[in-house]
């Protein structure tokens, strides 16, 4: 065969070609040789001399396809119910008997035709690729719609075939087909999805033919499917759902209804997969949710309160599944109810607390509530973030609730004390403490007044460190690191410094003892000194407390100070005698005792080395103690019976005598001091100092913001201040206003001239 | 050993009875002291931060490392005025006088 263009007569070639085309499209057997000849026939016509006959071939083929499809419609699809089908579009009830067959016939014909047209497309490949491609508008052009799509534009043969099918077959049968399909789907629903699979295949095939017939289109290929079938299908389904929902309401209570709805949703989504094009699945699902859930919210919520308050997990789980797909704002009722429920339970568990260990009960009860609902959310609500944030809100509101306007919220104090209890020496094993501390952070995170917590925590930490009450330094450090993680460096800066001071002091003591050894000095006492950094420790007012140091201590102090000054320069040491304590060996009694007591108390005892009886005034003057200090330290000595007083009230003239008949079963004991207990004044002092710090923080924040912004409206300023202070506390607006006022007085900022609620920064 | 009503006391003696032992002996002393820079004014006049805290710059730079604040020491001039060493070392680049008394700045000692 030659590829050279030659002169051909169209009427000679076309009938031959047409014959083959018919065989191809009806899927009849075509010999390889014949196929090849036809293939070259197409070529010859397209390149014919003198004029190519491609256009003529195209239009003849079009006519052929049109008549073929019409013939199929009449002979194959409509054949069986001839009379009735002639007016099938108008009479719908008369054709009942033949209905299933229409779908069946259409389906078989379509299967044949769609396959055939693919082959025919192959046969015409030369025409398609050489002749028609050239005319085709490019993608970009079609995308921007520059060219008005020309109705007479030539299509590739495959597309042409599909388009003709649409025109002559689908459009003609559409109403009837859709009606049959919907009946088929309805039958499937009625039989609980047990329609036989052959039938399902047919319906599925017919539905998909609406898509496939337009598949070649670049845009809007689903349009036919959507207009022709999807819209009526959704409407019919919607009606069906409404109807079903009404039926369910008749016979079900809420929990049954939800169970049924979940089942129906599942069935419907399986059904949709079985029949429909994928693009319809979410639409049908939405329709289903709309009718069963959105439209029935009132009913579903009607028992919400009971379900939540009785914690009926199965019901709540169902309710969550049912409500999950609908928009968030419609779920809010469930979430709000849930939140209130947690809040109530939380308030109940902490409201009645009192007594010594209130802080332990507070934290542990709150933890129990938190854990319980965290577990419930995981179990029932799939850890949905909406519910988790409801839990957070509920916990935060319980924890930060003030018992009344006047009283401050004590949670920060409780949580700090709880940590203290854990970190103090006890018999609890380390792993358990560690776990509890981690849990404690959970509660800590809800506290708004983190600065209050920090104040309490640092005071308690100071006490533990100074009095060596910590269970383990690792646990202490671990806790500080946890806080740092939660609140950042600023928050734990001072805590870290305290912690480092103690470890530096341990080193220092070792070095100092070695130094003594090297110089052959024996102080005769076991000396351990902690050197704290001024500023880092919450020691309250460190105003100088007068004290004449007994000469027994002097040597130690001198040695240490000399050593310290050699080691460091530019530093001065202040001795905090009210925080020192030691052990004194008593040898004046039958047995000798070793007693732990405060430094002042040791000093008092030492005075009795040389005499057995002294007046209070004498003692006070010798030691230069203030009244308050003296009373505070003398009282426990008398209570311990090591000393006795001549009168109950310790006045200047009261004689203090050494008791010589003192006995105690233990040879080592401690004189309890009221010092280490937290007094109410101390708590109040802590809270007041927090207020002072807050004011400073707010002023600094305002100056910083104003410096950056130069000019700012009042409300914008408040917002920025709030966001800066969020980490450590939530200031009240009045306090911020006061700070603004005082900064205006100090001329850091001023009100702008033209507006009352605007400030500007004064450099 | 203690006779009631008597003012004189039997002082316990050592086993060999030669030297009287003290009635009260210090066995152990856990002392607490606080150190601070030995300065006249505890606020650095240059950065307006307490000299016990690290200077503004160091606070901003070394947020992560707690121990690094140890490096932010204090320096005393011959005039006995004191500042953060960091602040002063920047200051003298501009003006080699004490910011408080305008005397020629020379370091008297350095904190450690």
Automatic annotation (TrEMBL), chain A:
InterPro entries: Cullin, Cullin-like_AB, Cullin_CS, Cullin_homology, Cullin_homology_sf, Cullin_N, Cullin_neddylation_domain, Cullin_repeat-like_dom_sf. Gene3D superfamilies: Cullin Repeats (1.20.1310.10), Ring Box Chain A, domain 5 (4.10.1030.10), Winged helix-like DNA-binding domain superfamily/Winged helix DNA-binding domain (1.10.10.10). One of its GO terms (cellular component) is perinuclear region of cytoplasm. GO terms for biological process: growth of a germarium-derived egg chamber; male germ-line cyst encapsulation; negative regulation of BMP signaling pathway; negative regulation of receptor signaling pathway via JAK-STAT; positive regulation of proteasomal ubiquitin-dependent protein catabolic process; regulation of synaptic assembly at neuromuscular junction; ubiquitin-dependent protein catabolic process; viral process. Pathway: Protein modification; protein ubiquitination. It is found in: Nucleus. SUPFAM superfamilies: Cullin homology domain, Cullin repeat-like, Winged helix' DNA-binding domain. The keyword DNA-binding does not apply. Residues 410-638 form the Cullin family profile domain. The keyword Phosphoprotein applies. GO terms for molecular function: ubiquitin ligase complex scaffold activity; ubiquitin protein ligase binding. PROSITE patterns: CULLIN_1, CULLIN_2. Keywords: Acetylation, Isopeptide bond, Nucleus, Phosphoprotein, Ubl conjugation, Ubl conjugation pathway. PANTHER family: CULLIN (PTHR11932). Belongs to the cullin family. This is Cullin-2. It comes from Drosophila willistoni (Fruit fly).
From TrEMBL, chain B:
It comes from the Eukaryota. Keywords: Acetylation, Cytoplasm, Metal-binding, Nucleus, Transferase, Ubl conjugation pathway, Zinc, Zinc-finger. It catalyses: S-ubiquitinyl-[E2 ubiquitin-conjugating enzyme]-L-cysteine + [acceptor protein]-L-lysine = [E2 ubiquitin-conjugating enzyme]-L-cysteine + N(6)-ubiquitinyl-[acceptor protein]-L-lysine; S-[NEDD8-protein]-yl-[E2 NEDD8-conjugating enzyme]-L-cysteine + [cullin]-L-lysine = [E2 NEDD8-conjugating enzyme]-L-cysteine + N(6)-[NEDD8-protein]-yl-[cullin]-L-lysine. Residues 1-20 are annotated as: Disordered. The keyword Metal-binding applies. Pathway: Protein modification; protein ubiquitination. Gene3D superfamilies: Zinc/RING finger domain, C3HC4 (zinc finger). SUPFAM superfamilies: RING/U-box. It is found in: Cytoplasm; Nucleus. This is RING-box protein 2. The lineage of its organism: Eukaryota, Metazoa, Ecdysozoa, Arthropoda, Hexapoda. The gene is Dwil\GK27401.
């Amino acid at each position: 065969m030659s590829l050279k263009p030659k002169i051909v007569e169209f009427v000679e070639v076309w009938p031959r070609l047409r014959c083959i085309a018919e065989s191809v499209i009806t899927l009849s057997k075509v010999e390889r040789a014949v196929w090849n000849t036809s293939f070259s026939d197409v070529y010859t016509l397209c390149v014919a001399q003198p004029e190519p006959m491609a256009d003529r071939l195209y239009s003849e083929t079009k006519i052929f396809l049109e008549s073929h499809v019409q013939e199929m419609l009449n002979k194959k699809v409509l054949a069986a119910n001839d009379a009735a089908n002639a007016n099938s579009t108008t009479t719908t009830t008369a054709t009942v008997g033949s209905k299933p067959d229409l779908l069946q016939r259409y389906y078989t014909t379509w299967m044949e035709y769609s396959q055939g047209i693919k082959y025919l497309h192959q046969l015409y490949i030369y025409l398609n690729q050489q002749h028609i491609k050239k005319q085709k508008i490019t993608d970009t052009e079609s995308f921007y719609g520059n060219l008005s799509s020309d109705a007479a534009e030539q299509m590739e043969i495959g597309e042409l075939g599909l388009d003709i099918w649409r025109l002559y077959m689908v459009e003609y049968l559409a109403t009837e087909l859709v009606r049959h399909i919907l009946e088929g789907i309805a039958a499937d629903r009625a039989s609980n999805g047990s329609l036989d699979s052959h039938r399902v295949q047919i319906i599925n095939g017919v539905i998909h033919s609406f898509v496939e017939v337009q598949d070649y289109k670049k845009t809007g290929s689903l349009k036919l499917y959507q207009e022709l079938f999807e819209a009526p299908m959704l409407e019919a389904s919607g009606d069906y759902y409404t109807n079903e929902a009404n039926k369910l309401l008749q016979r079900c209570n809420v929990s049954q209804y939800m169970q049924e709805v979940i089942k129906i949703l599942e069935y419907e989504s399986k059904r949709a997969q079985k029949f429909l094009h994928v693009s319809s699945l979410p639409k049908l699902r939405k329709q289903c949710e709309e009718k069963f859930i959105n439209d029935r919210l009132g009913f579903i919520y009607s028992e919400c309160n009971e379900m939540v308050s009785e914690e009926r997990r199965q019901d709540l789980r169902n309710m969550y599944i049912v409500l999950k797909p609908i928009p968030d704002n419609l779920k809010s009722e469930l979430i709000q109810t849930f939140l209130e429920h947690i809040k109530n339970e939380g308030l109940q568990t902490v409201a009645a607390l009192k007594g010594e260990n209130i802080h332990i009960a507070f934290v542990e009860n709150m933890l129990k509530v938190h854990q319980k609902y965290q577990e419930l959310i995981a179990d029932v609500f799939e850890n949905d973030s909406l519910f988790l944030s409801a839990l957070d809100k509920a916990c935060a509101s319980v924890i930060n609730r003030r018992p009344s306007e006047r009283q401050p919220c004590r949670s920060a104090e409780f949580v700090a004390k709880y940590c203290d209890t854990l970190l103090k020496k006890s018999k609890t094993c380390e792993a358990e403490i560690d776990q509890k501390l981690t849990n404690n952070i959970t509660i800590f995170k809800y506290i708004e007044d983190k600065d209050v917590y920090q104040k309490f925590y640092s005071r308690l930490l100071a006490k533990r460190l100074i009095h060596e009450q910590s269970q383990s330094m690792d646990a202490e450090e671990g806790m500080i690191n946890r806080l740092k993680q939660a609140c950042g460096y600023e928050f734990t800066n001072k805590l870290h410094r305290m912690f480092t001071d103690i470890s530096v002091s341990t080193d220092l003591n070792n070095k100092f003892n070695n130094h003594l050894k090297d110089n052959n000095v024996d102080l005769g006492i076991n000396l351990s000194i902690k050197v704290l950094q001024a500023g880092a420790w919450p020691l309250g007012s460190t105003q100088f407390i007068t004290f004449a140091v007994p000469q027994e201590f002097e040597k130690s102090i001198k040695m240490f100070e000399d050593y310290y000054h050699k080691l460091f320069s530019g530093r001065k040491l202040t001795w905090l005698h009210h925080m020192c304590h030691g052990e004194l060996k008593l040898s004046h009694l039958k047995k000798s005792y070793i007693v732990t007591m405060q430094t002042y108390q040791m000093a008092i005892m030492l005075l009795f080395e040389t005499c057995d009886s002294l007046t209070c005034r004498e003692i006070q003057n010798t030691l230069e103690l203030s009244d308050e200090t003296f009373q505070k330290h003398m009282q426990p000595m008398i209570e311990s019976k090591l000393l006795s007083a001549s009168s109950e009230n310790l006045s200047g003239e009261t004689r203090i005598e050494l008791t010589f008949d003192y006995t105690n079963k233990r040879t080592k004991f401690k004189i309890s001091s009221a010092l280490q207990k937290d007094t109410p004044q101390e708590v109040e002092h802590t809270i007041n100092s927090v207020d002072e710090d807050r004011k400073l923080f707010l002023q600094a924040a305002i100056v910083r913001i104003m410096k950056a912004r130069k000019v700012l409206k009042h409300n914008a300023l408040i917002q920025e201040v709030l966001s800066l202070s969020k980490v450590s506390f939530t200031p009240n607006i009045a306090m911020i206003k006061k700070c603004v006022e005082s900064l205006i007085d100090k001329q850091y900022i001023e009100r702008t001239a033209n507006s009352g609620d605007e400030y500007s920064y004064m450099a | 050993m203690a006779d009631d009503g008597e003012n004189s006391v039997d002082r316990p003696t050592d086993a060999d009875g030669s030297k009287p032992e003290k009635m009260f002996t210090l066995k152990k002393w856990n002392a607490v002291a606080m150190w601070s820079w030995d300065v006249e004014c505890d606020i650095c006049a240059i950065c307006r931060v307490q000299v016990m805290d690290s200077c503004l710059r160091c606070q901003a730079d070394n947020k992560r490392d707690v121990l690094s604040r140890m490096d932010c020491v204090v320096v005393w001039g011959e005039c006995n005025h004191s500042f953060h060493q960091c602040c002063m070392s920047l200051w003298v680049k501009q003006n080699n006088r004490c910011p408080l008394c305008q005397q020629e700045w020379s370091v008297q000692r350095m904190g450690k």
